[in-house]
Amino acid sequence: MSTATDRPTPARNSLPRDAWVNFKRWSRKAVRNPTAFFLEIVVGVFSLLLFSAVFGDVGEFALAQAGYADVDYLTYLVPAVFMQATMGSAFTSGVGLVGDLESGMFEKVTATPMGWTAVLLGKAAADLLRILVQLLVVLALAVALGASVETGVAGVVGIAAVSLLVGLLFMSVANILGVLVRDEEAINAASMLFMFPLLFLSPAFIPVASDIEWLARLNPVTYGVDAIRALVLGEDVLTVLEVSRFGGIYDTLVPAVAVLVGLNVVFGAIAVWVLGRASSVDAA
């Protein structure tokens, strides 16, 4: 005769377990509907080809004026295309959340005992994997066209890490907006509102002019671009801050990564709080 003590004990929720469950759910969703994923890759490839053709002559002139005469514009352009591709894919994360809100899936998740940190981590991990594949395709094309990464394989790993930090930051922003506006068209419009002003107010396409340097200093994309460019060129390229404590390439990498990590902590915490608050309202 069985007793209550013979019954299997249900597995307890844990942060890694819940994050893994959410990672699998969002990864399966991307695999079942790969159109958006392939379009993101096409946009990244198209941007690399288009910008190098359109801005090539102007870019070479601007680089010569800024002391980068020995740098090929295609190589200089790689961080810009990475930032554009990363930001575009990150805002797709917000669109996915709005889809959950509209389909009722969000309410079902709020009924589970999962913590919102695990929900956001699992979703972010799936989105970051998608961004990583996209960036590797764009990087392979850039190298095939003649771009080079002076820091080698370690630099490529660093470039991926910096891109993912930027992607995670804008995923948090997109998810916050997704909960607040609950409208896919608004998220798509917001992605354009964020992407192009931030890219053009950074050293993404050409070195920053001195009269807008203070704006570039407040722009998170500046730090992503400069960190990736330092890894591509193998030298210190940070111009919006005066840092000479670490030496060489690390005078760019250390402050740039520190700024991106700090922003991720702030906006990640806000995203978890907003999702938790929305779940309380929807469950009421």
UniProtKB/TrEMBL annotation:
- Membrane topology per the record? Multi-pass membrane protein
Which PROSITE patterns has this protein been placed in? ABC_TM2
List the transmembrane segments: 35-56, 76-98, 128-147, 153-177, 189-209, 253-275
Keywords per UniProt: Membrane, Transmembrane, Transmembrane helix
Q: Which InterPro entries has this protein been placed in?
A: ABC2_TM, ABC2_TM_bact-type, ABC_2_transport, Nod_factor_ABC_transporter
Under Pfam families, the record lists: ABC2_membrane
State the compartments where it is located: Membrane
Domain called ABC transmembrane type-2: residue spans: 35-278
Q: Which domain of life is it from?
A: Archaea
Protein's recorded name = ABC transporter permease
